[in-house]
Every structure is written in C-alpha cells, then in structure tokens.
C-alpha cells in the first residue's frame, strides 16, 4: 500500500486529500472562517442545567451553547453507583474549563468534556488521569508491552515531575525511547502554559487552540506507507518543514513543495472524485452501483447489480457485486465522512459462506479507517448494521446547504398538485373575504398548466364563485410558491 497526502492551501480554505494506490480515500476541508474546534479547550460558563437529561448547556463563546453530559463532568473512573446528579456537579453561572469532543453539527451545539487531553505526535497527555495506556490499534502484544515499558521507565526517570497520565498513539509503533521522552517534555511544557490561562482567562474564551489542519494532518495521518506529502503553498511548506524538524524528523524528507502548473487536486483526479462524492449514486467497475442516502437518524446504502450480469449464474453475479460493493462502501464512508448508524442493504445472498466472505471483506476494508467503526453483523432482514464514530461534519455538510427550493427534501410538488392547492385556497378566501376578483401569482410552469390542462377546471371554479380569476407569472417564484391577491 503506497500513499500520498496532497495539501491545497488558499487564504480562504485548506483542503487535504489522502490518496492510497492512486485513489482518493479521505478528504479534509477547513474553511478559514469556520475552523474546526474539536480538541480546543475553553473556559466556559454554565448557562442552563437540565436535571431530566443529566446534562447542561455551556457558553464557550460560539453562536450556539455547547452541551455536556454528567458523566463527562465526573472524575474519570468513578463507579456508576457513585455518580452524582448534574445538579450536584454544576450550577448556573459557574465557570468551567472544558474541551470540545464533537463539532457542532446541524442544529446541535458542540459536545464537551471536562476530561482534558492534549495530543502530540506519539502521545496523548491526560493531566487529570493517572492512567498509562497504549492505543488499541497497535495489535502486536509484544510491541504493546515494549511501549508500556518505555512509558513506565520514562516516568520513573522523571519522578514526581510527571503528573497525570499518557496514552501511546498508533503512530508510536516502532518509536524509540528518546522520541517518546521528547514528546512528553513538549506536552508538559504545553500544559504548563494552558494551566496559566485556565486561571487568568475570562469566561467564555478559548485557552488552547489545536494546530491548523495542514499540521494536524502530518501529526495524525502520517504513517510508514505515506511516501510523499505535497503542499502547494511555499510559505506554509516552510512552516510544515519547521514543524516536522521539531516533532517528526522522520517525515522531513517526504515533504515536498508542489509547484506544478496543474492544480494539485487535479493529480489523481481528486477534484473529480470530490465532486462525485456529493452524489447519491456511486458506480462500481462491474456495472453495479450504490445508492447512498444520509438522513438525520442514519445513513442507508443500497447495493444494486445494475448492468452486471456475470458469466455463470445469478448467485455468482450477486456475490461478486457485493464483494466489490463492500470495498467501495468502506471507501465512501471515509471519503464522505459519514458517521452514526449506517445500514447496508447488500443484494440478498442464499449461500451463508458468501455472506460471511462479504462481511469479512467489509470489516477488512474498514480496518484502515481512522474513525472507530463497529460492525454488528447481518440482521434477520438481511441488512448489515455498523456504526462509525462521528466527530466532525460530513463532506456534504461542509460543502453544501439544503436546497432553498425543496427545503432539503430532494423532491418538489408537481405543477398539477400546486394548481389544486390554488383552487382550494381560492375557495377558502372566497368564503372568508368575498372579494370582487382574484389574481394568482405563480411560477411559469404552474401558470402554463392553469391556462392549458386545467383551463376547464378554472372555468368551472369561476362559474361556481361567480368571480373572475387572473394569472400572472412571477419568474423568481419556485414551482411550489404562489400568492393569491384579493382584488
């Protein structure tokens, strides 16, 4: 597996593409006016306590109040039977230092915790927790023990100077003792500055900002199989090099400034792939296709054979389409950053061995996903359920907004339906106001239908109410929009 990271920087936004074997797998976009805030630490103020929900709203200086649950306020490791109610933990007007763990999404405010942590390249520092651990993504037990031993020996050398706890990140696999020690010193220096601001900063205000996206990517995504990191801004290339020199010297030789004539996102057709990722339909190479529908509650993925007819029999066709779909679905979840509950409707398979292989292919394809995923197997209805951790907006939420014409429904009332609504509304107005005549303002399509297919109905209505009805086209009206003016 060979990979590249492409970074496109402009004053307005930063875009990052993670490419594996020449195919776009993941995209990150950060707008300068709307930077992500996960990981930021704020000094906030409690504005409302909700005993029924065991939660509270906290003002951290954003447009919408953020949300914190009682278990995110309790000290880590508190047994369930000893947990206090939110009313005993917080009160309105109280200042509180919190960290964002989920971005504001849609109408929901940011999610918060008081269990603070700050990351570096190899470690995550937890100042209020005594625990030391190793990322579960490092599966080799021997490597886990080695890293745990390194942490303990470093802590023993530092003595009482190291309060709190640390978790070894996945990127630390194979790291040496001096690299972990350097990270630990950096995090302790950083936390010292944050601690000072916790005391002096007013509420609400930010007291710790995470790194900008192009540096976070180097810290969080860089692996041995990433051969190049290309960035198209010379000024920020220099900043990235300086960051790597201090924290990631092993990545230094892989960072390049891209000065090509073609836009950097034209490499590997990244721009085209981003555009395709906003559509419902995903074409498979075999001729089959996926239909992806994100909703507020969950995302559904439907698999179809399309034009693929196979070479032997229907069962083989279905099996091969589902296998290809499993890989494509895992990629689309990463690329679109779809989170929460995901329901996949694979094409029905009678062979249980085929079901097992498709499920295994899906699980294997999800292994490279940075977001935590959990697959719960096949339901009685033949659907595959999985969850994917949601920490930031999806690609669609970042790049798009609800259609002002249909209000996000994806459909419009037909011109015929709108005509019948107009007839009902005229009858309602006639009973209420008994006007001398009526004027209907509507879109071109609706007026055309009223004067053509529905002309007989219009004549019948005029005869019934004994009034004339005039029609006027409003070019800026949507198909569903109309007004009835009493004359």
Outline the structure in words:
The protein is of the alpha+beta class and 487 residues long. It folds into four domains: 3-35 and 212-272, eRF1 domain 2 (Nucleotidyltransferase, domain 5, 2-Layer Sandwich); 116-205, 2-Layer Sandwich (Ribosomal Protein S5, domain 2); 279-396, Aminopeptidase, CATH 3.40.630; 415-486, Ribonuclease E, catalytic domain (Hypothetical Protein Ychn, Chain: A, 3-Layer(aba) Sandwich), CATH 3.40.1260. It contains twelve helices and 24 strands. The protein has helices at residues 86-89, 141-158, 177-200, 213-221, 234-247, 270-276, 314-336, 352-366, 395-399, 415-433, 444-451, 455-465, and strands at 3-9, 13-20, 23-31, 41-50, 55-59, 66-69, 95-102, 111-113, 118-119, 123-126, 132-134, 165-168, 205-208, 226-231, 255-257, 281-283, 289-294, 298-304, 340-345, 373-378, 384-388, 438-442, 469-473, 482-486. The strands form five sheets. Strands 4, 5, 6, 7, 8 and 13 form a six-stranded antiparallel β-sheet that branches. Strands 16-17-18-19-21-20 form a six-stranded mixed β-sheet, covered by helices on one side. Strand 20 and strand 21 (384-388) form a beta hairpin. It is globular and about 95 Å long.
